[in-house]
What we know:
It contains six helices and 19 strands. It is elongated and about 70 Å long. It has three domains: 47 residues, Roll (Membrane-bound Lytic Murein Transglycosylase D, Chain A); 48 residues, Membrane-bound Lytic Murein Transglycosylase D, Chain A; 138 residues, Glucose Permease (Domain IIA) (Distorted Sandwich), CATH 2.70.70. The relative contact order is 0.16. The two termini are 41 Å apart. The strands form five sheets. Strands 8, 11, 12, 13, 14, 15, 16, 17, 18 and 19 form a ten-stranded antiparallel β-sheet that branches. A three-stranded antiparallel β-sheet has the order 7-10-9, with no helix packed on it.
Amino acid sequence: MKIFIIFFLLTFLNSCEKFFYGEYEIFEKYSNEKYYKKNIYIVKKGDNLYLISKNFSVSIEEIIKKNNIKSPFKIFPNQKLIIPKKTIYTVLRGDTLYSISRRFNVDKYNLSKLNKLKTNNIIYVGQRLIIPNYSTIKKSEVNLTIEKISKKKKAKFKQNKDKTIFIWPVRGEVILKYGMIKPGLHNDGINIAANNGEDVVAARQGKIIYAGNEIPGYGNLILIKHDNQWVTAYAHLDEIIIKKGTQVKKGEKIGRVGSSGNVSSSQLHFEIRKGKKALNPREYLL
């Protein structure tokens, strides 16, 4: 029942459009769709699950799960095993081991052990971490989404052809811009630094189609559906002061700035979407 509810909440009302983040649907975690690319390893004489897991830097549990290996968990020469490709993540400013573990839906202890970190688990900007393989998309700081890399033009401000205008949901410094952050990491909106508890307002008139915190990494999240298939998203809120189904006016208070979800400082992640497509908010904000 919960899977259906999450799916329904994030499906545009009165349409078949789904709310996407990057190349993946926001509710993909709940539909059990695998995103990883598969490697096939052929078992050799003398192999065991422990040796294979060490060789590929994956857990024994992951290999067992991916290949549906039953107790007593024996493998045989020439048996084909699916081994997910290793994921490498480059540490960004503000990251912690905990936030990264939440972002990728992995255990913090395993992440630390795999990367041979010291007991204090200190990480540094630019450090490359091996991420234990995971099978479903876990959305991390709403500002960062893992997506398939496609050839795109360099991010430049383009003319807003349809003249649609939104107001700033909160005023502050843009600390993370729209677009590619690192290879494999894309921000589908902008992140605005603001004081904790500061009012967040609706960027345009519309209807609240989601208000909750069930999407991992986003913290308290509000989605507003506007006319002509426009949707805006407001994440990392400290408090939601509006209910699902409420009609709101442009500039009406809907929540307060916070640091919920996978961020370490007070900020608002804000997105503007037209149908499935995430657009650069700076091109539409007044």
